[in-house]
C-alpha cells in the first residue's frame, strides 16, 4: 500500500512540474512581424483595410500600417516627416518620380486604367445623330463614342476636346429635354487635380491632344494648352477632393453624368453590388495608365514590396478589389465573375493609345495653369 501511494505521489508531482513548466515556458512564438508604415492613395484604402489582405501580409511576416493621402501630396509629407514612413504607394508613375529613391527600383504590383463612368441613358443620348455635326472652332464636332476591340466602348478623347472647345451643351445633345438633370456644358467631372492623381492624368491626356498629339515639354506648350485646361477644370465649379465623393454624386444623380475615375473604383463598387446595372464603363481611346507603384523609403519596405509583387494571394486579392495585376490583364474581370460584366476583359486589346506622361515639373505647371494659379 505504501508503495502504491508513493507511485501516485510521484505521478502527481510530475504532473505538477509539467504544469509549472507549461506556465513558465509557453510555446515559443513564431517569427516576429516586421512593422512597416506607408502612405497609400485613397483608392487603395479598402484593399488595405480588408482582413484578408491584412492576414496575407501577416503570413508574409509583415505588420503593415497605412495612411491615405493624395498621390501628389506624398512627396511633401515624406519631406516633412522623413522618418515616419517606410514606403509610399501612389497611383501614377509621374507621382512616383517625385518620390523615387535612387537606391531602389520602384515595384509596380498592379495598375488601373482610367475610365469615364456614365449611365446607359446618357450614353444613348451621345450615340444619337441629331447633335453630331455641331459647328465648332475646328469645324464639325465628330461623334464622341466608338466601338473598341474586345467588346469595349471607347470615348473619343479628341472629339471630346473639340466638343469642349465648341462649348457643346447638354441641350444640344438632348434638344427634346428627355433628361431634365442634364444641364449646362457637356463636361467630364473630375476630382481636384492639385491633390488627385487621376485628375492630373486627365489634364495630361487633354494637354497631349491640345498640343498636336505631343507631350508638353516646355513653357510654350503649357501656354498653348492652358486655356483649354482652365476651361476643363474651372467650368466644373467646386472640385471634390476624393473620387468617393465623385461617385456619390454620380450615383445620386446630382449633375455629374460623366465622371473620370479609376476602373478599380468602379470595379470595387461592382464587387460590392453597389454599381447600378445601367452603368456603362467608357474607356478613353487616348489615355495614361495609372501605375500603382511601391516606392521604398527605408530598408523595412523591401519585404513589403517583394510581397506585393510576388505573393500570389495578394495578387488574387488585388484582382478581387478591382486592380489589374501586372502581367495578368484579365485577372480582374475573372475575379469579379458575373459582376465584371461591362468591364473590358483585357485592356491591352481594346485599341486604346497610351500616352507618355509629362515630367513631374511640367505636369505640376499644367495643373497650375488649369487652376489659374501659375
- Distance between the first and last residues' Cα: 101 Å
* Shape summary: globular
Note the main sheet.
Answer: 6 strands, mixed
Strand order of the largest sheet: 2-1-3-13-4-14
Determine the mean pLDDT.
Answer: 86
User: Helicity range of the residues?
Assistant: 40-55%
Query: What's the total number of strands?
Result: 15
Strand content: 15-25%
How many helices in DSSP terms? 16
Question: Can you summarize this structure?
Answer:
With 374 residues, the chain is of the alpha/beta class. Helix content is 42%, strand content 17%. The longest helix has 23 residues, at 2-24.
List its salient traits:
alpha/beta; six-stranded mixed beta sheet; five-stranded mixed beta sheet; 16 helices; 42% helix; globular; disordered N terminus
Amino acid at each position: 500500500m505504501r508503495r502504491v501511494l508513493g507511485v501516485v505521489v510521484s505521478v502527481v508531482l510530475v504532473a505538477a512540474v509539467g504544469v509549472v513548466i507549461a506556465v513558465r515556458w509557453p510555446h515559443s512564438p513564431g517569427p516576429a512581424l516586421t512593422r512597416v508604415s506607408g502612405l497609400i492613395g485613397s483608392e487603395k484604402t479598402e484593399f488595405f483595410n480588408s482582413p484578408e489582405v491584412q492576414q496575407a501580409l501577416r503570413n508574409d511576416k509583415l505588420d503593415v500600417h497605412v495612411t491615405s493621402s493624395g498621390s501628389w501630396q506624398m512627396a511633401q509629407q515624406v519631406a516633412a516627416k522623413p522618418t515616419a514612413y517606410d514606403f509610399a504607394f501612389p497611383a501614377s508613375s509621374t507621382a512616383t518620380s517625385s518620390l523615387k529613391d535612387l537606391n531602389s527600383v520602384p515595384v509596380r504590383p498592379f495598375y488601373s486604367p482610367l475610365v469615364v463612368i456614365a449611365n446607359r441613358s446618357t450614353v444613348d443620348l451621345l450615340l444619337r445623330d441629331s447633335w453630331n455635326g455641331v459647328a465648332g472652332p475646328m469645324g464639325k464636332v465628330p461623334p464622341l463614342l466608338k466601338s473598341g476591340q474586345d467588346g469595349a466602348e471607347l470615348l473619343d478623347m479628341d472629339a471630346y476636346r473639340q466638343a469642349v472647345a465648341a462649348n457643346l451643351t447638354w441641350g444640344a445633345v438632348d434638344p427634346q429635354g428627355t433628361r431634365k438633370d442634364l444641364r449646362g456644358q457637356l463636361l467630364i467631372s473630375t476630382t481636384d487635380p492639385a491633390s488627385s492623381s487621376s485628375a492630373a492624368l486627365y489634364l495630361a491626356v487633354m494637354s497631349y491632344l491640345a498640343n498636336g498629339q505631343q507631350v508638353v515639354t516646355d513653357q510654350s506648350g503649357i501656354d498653348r494648352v492652358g486655356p483649354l485646361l482652365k476651361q476643363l477644370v474651372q467650368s466644373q465649379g467646386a472640385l471634390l477632393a476624393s473620387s468617393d465623393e465623385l461617385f456619390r454624386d454620380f450615383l445620386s444623380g446630382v449633375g455629374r453624368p460623366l465622371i473620370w475615375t479609376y476602373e478599380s473604383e468602379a470595379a470595387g463598387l461592382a464587387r460590392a453590388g453597389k454599381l447600378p446595372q445601367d452603368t456603362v464603363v467608357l474607356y478613353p481611346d487616348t489615355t495614361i495608365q495609372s501605375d500603382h507603384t511601391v516606392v521604398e523609403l527605408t530598408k523595412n519596405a523591401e519585404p513589403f514590396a517583394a510581397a506585393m509583387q510576388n505573393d500570389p494571394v495578394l495578387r488574387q486579392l488585388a484582382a478581387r478589389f478591382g486592380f489589374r495585376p501586372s502581367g495578368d490583364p484579365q485577372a480582374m474581370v475573372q475575379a469579379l465573375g458575373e459582376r465584371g460584366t461591362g468591364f473590358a476583359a483585357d485592356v491591352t486589346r481594346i485599341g486604346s493609345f497610351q500616352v507618355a506622361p509629362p515630367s513631374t515639373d511640367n505636369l505640376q505647371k499644367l495643373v497650375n495653369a488649369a487652376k489659374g494659379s501659375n
